[in-house]
Specification:
Among the domains are: 35-154, no CATH class; 211-371, no CATH class. The protein has 18 helices and nine strands. It has helices spanning 35-43, 100-103, 139-143, 169-174, 179-208, 211-238, 241-245, 250-261, 274-289, 311-321, 327-333, 340-357, 359-366, 374-391, 397-400, 410-420, 433-445, 458-464; strands at 18-20, 26-28, 52-53, 59-64, 67-68, 76-83, 86-95, 115-120, 134-137. The strands form two sheets. Strands 3, 4, 5, 6, 7, 8 and 9 form a seven-stranded mixed sheet that branches. The protein has a two-stranded antiparallel sheet with strand order 1-2. A hairpin with a 5-residue loop joins strand 1 (18-20) and strand 2 (26-28).
Length: 470
């Protein structure tokens, strides 16, 4: 297989997403999400902006976003929307850019004849749609929605086509691939996913101008993992790093985080016991800091969360690791980066050492100690540190090829079954973080958006074009 033929599918090398500015600096630009993210925003009223306006400035209200279409044709069917006081019933098509309507050849396609609304991220600069179709651009509306973040979207949690058990076109194409070729394909896709993360990181660095604050926010998000990633990120935004580190004792930092999160312990009873002592200590500190009755509290998903992964435990760890603004990031920056494995081992060592330094004090002050497991640190390496270093140009593809793996999940398992069959040996990717990232990239960019039983899948088509000539 000629794996290089797949390069056009992936996000370009990170250098291609920066442009030179007159002052000699570099400015990140580009779109680092997918069309599926926009579909999720439109489908979910918790994500969809409440205040939207059409391209002509009229107020847009959504009575029903429509039925998510898993077959060919518009993305949502039978929607009910009101534009400028006029109720419209019909289909909705979602694109990133307004020009995608023409680029995807929808004009004149009878399947799109009933489209009444074209939803995009970027606003239109010129009209190129049939006159009966209204337009909505989500960018400004989302920016003005408190707490909106694409990071909070779990793409695999939303409806997608249920693929049949018969071999998929991608699987048939990969059946002839050698192990080395299959791994090269996954690594290529994994680098694309890491570039997306790096671009996101670069944009956040531009917005905030603070490397330490961005690192802190992203670290907190990774501590929350999937269920509470958005909530942990919200706490980091409510309690900026400089404000957190202004408190020179652990209890004050922990109380500030708990109070802002709405997770202060509930009244246990004034019986003079140890629990009551800890309760009063944290509440007293929170009242003094003005966060005991925080008006804006994130929504937490606690059900089914193991005690060691409870947000209170994660916030305790954050109160230790971020006692001073730059210590953790400085210590991590000193680690040698000759290989991904050696570097990752060093990250584990640094984080564990800082946590151990405060273990006895935490046990004495709040009756418990917090731990960050090896798999969670791997998650932080892949989702925080590596993208940060890539955005700053101090991590290359070779380093990425030996990073450790995150925990296996159902999304990875199911996508791997489609790609390599149910009898394949997971060892080809299960211990390699980059290859597992590649499987997630294929799933998010292609599998979750497939229609017509994969006949429209660009990945499968590209794989078929990589076959060696007879």
């Amino acid at each position: 297989m000629e794996v290089s033929k797949l390069d056009s599918l992936w996000l370009p090398d990170i250098g291609a997403v920066f442009v030179a500015e007159p002052d000699g600096g570099l400015l990140a630009h580009g779109w680092h999400w997918t069309e599926r993210h926009l579909q999720c925003v439109w489908a979910d009223n918790k994500l969809r902006p409440a205040q939207m306006r059409s391209g002509s400035g009229e107020e847009v209200a959504v009575a029903d976003p429509g039925r998510w279409n898993l077959e060919a044709g518009p993305d949502f069917l039978d929607a009910v929307v009101t534009v400028g006081g006029k109720t419209m019933r019909g289909d909705v098509e979602i694109h990133i850019r307004p020009s995608d309507w023409a680029a995807h050849h929808h004009t004149g396609d009878p399947r799109y004849a009933n489209v009444v609304l074209h939803v995009t991220w970027f606003p239109a600069t010129s009209a190129s749609l049939p006159g009966h179709i209204a337009t909505v651009a989500l960018r400004e509306a989302a920016a003005s929605s408190p707490g909106f973040s694409f990071d909070a979207i779990d793409l695999s949690a939303y409806p997608h086509a249920v693929l049949p058990e018969t071999p998929r076109p991608c699987g048939e194409a990969l059946a002839e691939a050698t192990k080395a070729e299959a791994q090269a394909i996954l690594e290529s896709a994994g680098l694309s996913r890491l570039r997306r993360k790096a671009l996101q990181m670069a944009l956040r660095l531009q917005e905030t101008g603070s490397r330490n604050q961005v690192f802190y926010e992203e670290f907190m998000r990774a501590l929350g993992y999937k269920a509470n990633a958005g909530a942990m990120r919200a706490v980091a935004e409510q309690v900026p790093l400089d404000r957190l580190c202004a408190e020179d004792d652990f209890v004050s930092r922990y109380a500030m985080l708990l109070g802002s999160a709405g997770l202060l312990p509930q009244q246990i009873g004034d019986d003079g016991g140890e629990d009551a002592r800890i309760f009063r200590k944290l509440w007293d500190a929170a009242w003094k800091l003005g966060v005991a009755d925080a008006p804006s509290r994130p929504v937490w998903r606690i059900s089914g969360v193991r005690p060691a992964n409870h947000p209170r435990q994660r916030l305790a760890a954050a109160a230790v690791l971020f006692a001073t603004p730059g210590r953790l990031l400085l210590e991590l920056s000193k680690l040698p980066r000759r290989s991904g494995k050696e570097w990752a081992d060093g990250v584990h060592r640094v984080v564990s050492q800082i946590m151990e330094e405060s273990a006895d004090f935490m046990a004495g002050s709040i009756g418990t100690t917090a731990r960050i497991g090896r798999q969670r640190i791997n998650t932080i390496i892949i989702n925080v540190l590596l993208p940060l270093y890539m955005a700053e140009g101090i991590a290359d593809a070779e380093m990425c090829r030996s990073i450790p793996a995150e925990a296996m999940n159902e999304q990875i398992k199911e996508t791997a079954y489609r790609l390599f069959g149910r009898d394949h040996n997971p060892a080809m990717y299960s211990t390699n973080g980059l290859r597992m990232q590649g499987i997630i990239e294929v799933c998010n960019v292609f599998c979750l958006s497939t229609k017509s039983l994969c006949s429209d899948c660009a990945f499968a088509q590209a794989l078929s074009n990589t076959a060696r000539p007879e």
